[in-house]
């Protein structure tokens, strides 16, 4: 079969600021690249169109899809941009008779509530296993009710096959199909200049209970890839694409200190001349980590401050003392690590006084 994965241009929502937003928003759609790799492993021909990074409008995307003429179309989108995914799906349906699949956080959260007629299949939660199962049965026209984590229609009625469970063996997932992306277009500005980069994920899951986070949907069971598997992917990216900057996508880069230090050990041992960045909690960042990570290539770190008002932090269950941010930023200054402290305004319990504190 032929499968198209599509990611619509979403920065158009910024209106006259859309061009500026496009310059800083290009992010490799790792989720679709993973599913594309799974499909390729099963022998299917795959196309990925990232409308955002290529600045394509819907009609330009549809033109490319028509030229490829797939048997299935896959899409994904977070809540703020899901209306754009639905709009592209509707326009595709008006011009092509091809089944459309969708997945991701918004689909997982709302399921039947957003299962509009323009969609044929929804994949709930992690789809590494369910997508492979689906392709095998769909190609043979067998009963799709056997696929866990799937929404589809049968005789006009929506069928949900139940939660699929989490993918436990992350090493078994093939590396993302980056060769299907315009990988040379993904660039990020840093204090070290503009760098060609890719995203990478070593860990899934987060044990904490911040109320604004979608990990409540995906569970708090932390699963990690082996260090050997991660290093193999990094070496593949360096050798095949000459990309040497990596953005680690896990929620807490330093959740397991020994894992972080072991990753540094292997980067140093292999002589990998790379740089990387990621996010973590300020109270899980100490001097040993700062020194070792920076030595192995860490050039930027993000701490989720969210608010400087203890009242708001308590409401959102952000259990990180404010003093931890002060100490963590002193360390990043000492080791010359570019630092972001992200905040959210308008959290539950927020008022003008708490905003001023932040």
The average pLDDT value, as a whole number, equals 94
Task: Work out the helix count.
Answer: 13
Low-pLDDT regions: none
Structural class: alpha/beta
Helix percent reads 25-40%
Taking Cα atoms only, what radius of gyration do you get, to the nearest Å?
21 Å
Largest sheet: 7 strands, mixed
Instruction: State the total count of DSSP E strands.
Output: 15
Outline type: globular
Oligomer: single chain
Give the SSE string: EHHEHEHEHEHEEEEEHEHEHEHEHHEH
Distance between the termini: 53 Å
Which sequence of strands runs across the widest sheet? 2-1-3-4-5-6-7
Share in β-strands: 15-25%
Overview of the structural elements:
With 358 residues, this protein is an alpha/beta fold. 36% of the residues lie in helices and 21% in strands. The chain has helices at 18-25, 30-41, 58-68, 82-95, 105-110, 128-139, 215-218, 227-241, 257-269, 287-296, 310-315, 322-334, 352-357, and strands at 2-7, 45-50, 72-76, 100-103, 121-123, 150-154, 157-160, 187-190, 193-200, 203-204, 223-224, 245-248, 275-280, 298-306, 338-343. A seven-stranded mixed β-sheet has the order 2-1-3-4-5-6-7, with helices on both faces. Helix 5 (105-110) links the parallel strand 4 and strand 5 (121-123). Helix 8 packs across helix 9. The longest helix has 15 residues, at 227-241.
């Amino acid at each position: 079969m032929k499968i198209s994965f599509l990611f619509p241009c979403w920065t158009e929502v910024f209106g006259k600021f859309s061009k500026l937003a496009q310059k800083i928003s290009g992010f490799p759609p790792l989720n679709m690249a993973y599913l594309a790799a799974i499909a390729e492993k099963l022998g299917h021909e795959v196309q990925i169109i990232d409308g955002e990074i290529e600045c394509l409008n819907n009609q330009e995307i549809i033109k490319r899809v028509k030229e490829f003429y797939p048997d299935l179309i896959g899409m994904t989108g977070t809540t703020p941009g899901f209306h754009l995914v639905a709009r592209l799906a509707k326009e595709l349906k008006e011009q092509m008779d091809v089944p459309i699949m969708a997945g991701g956080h918004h689909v997982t959260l709302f399921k039947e509530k957003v299962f509009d007629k323009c969609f044929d299949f929804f994949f709930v939660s992690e789809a590494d296993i369910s997508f492979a199962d689906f392709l095998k049965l769909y190609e043979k026209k067998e009963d799709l009710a056997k696929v866990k984590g799937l929404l589809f229609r049968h005789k006009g009625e929506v069928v949900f096959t139940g939660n699929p469970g989490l993918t436990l063996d992350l090493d078994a997932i093939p590396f993302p199909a980056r060769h299907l992306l315009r990988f040379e277009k993904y660039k990020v500005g840093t204090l070290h200049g503009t760098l060609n980069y890719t995203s990478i994920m070593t860990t899934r899951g987060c044990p904490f209970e911040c109320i604004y986070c979608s990990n409540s949907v995906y569970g708090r069971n932390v699963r990690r890839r082996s260090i050997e598997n991660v290093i193999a992917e990094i070496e593949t990216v360096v050798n095949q694409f000459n990309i040497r900057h990596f953005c680690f996508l896990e929620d807490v880069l330093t959740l397991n200190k020994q894992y972080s230090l072991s990753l540094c050990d292997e980067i140093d041992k292999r002589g990998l001349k790379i740089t990387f960045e990621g996010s973590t909690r300020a109270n899980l960042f100490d001097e040993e980590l700062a020194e070792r990570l920076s030595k192995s290539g860490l050039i930027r770190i993000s701490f989720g401050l969210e608010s400087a008002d203890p009242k708001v932090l308590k409401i959102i269950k952000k259990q990180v003392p404010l003093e931890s941010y002060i100490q963590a930023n002193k360390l990043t200054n000492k080791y010359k690590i570019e630092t972001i402290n992200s905040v959210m305004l308008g959290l539950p319990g927020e008022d003008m006084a708490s905003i001023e504190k932040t």
